[in-house]
Design goal:
Keywords: Membrane, Signal, Transmembrane, Transmembrane helix
Protein name: Arabinogalactan protein 16
Transmembrane segments: 42-61
Order of helices and strands: HH
Number of helices: 2
Number of strands: 0
Shape: rod-shaped
Pfam families: AGP
Organism: Raphanus sativus (Radish)
Length: 73
């Protein structure tokens, strides 16, 4: 009977060791890739650029309408 308990103990020890060693070498999942541009940010950049162009043109054209004696520089 001593050999049967020895075999059972050895089998239990081997099972526990196998589980612990597999957990120790487990790797975490790789992080998800960064999202790619869906075009919204490109559209927003174009809109900002057009607003800056409109603002510059407004400041350049408005003095010409306000008075004819205004000079740019």
């Amino acid at each position: 009977m001593a050999s049967r308990s020895y075999v059972t103990g050895f089998a239990l020890f081997t099972f526990v060791f196998a589980v612990i060693s597999s957990l120790a070498s487990a790797q975490s999942l790789a992080p998800a890739p960064a999202p790619t541009s869906d075009g919204t940010s490109i559209d927003q950049g174009i809109a900002y650029l057009l607003m800056v162009v409109a603002l510059v043109l407004t400041y350049l054209i408005h003095p010409l309408d306000a008075s004819s004696s205004y000079s740019f520089f």
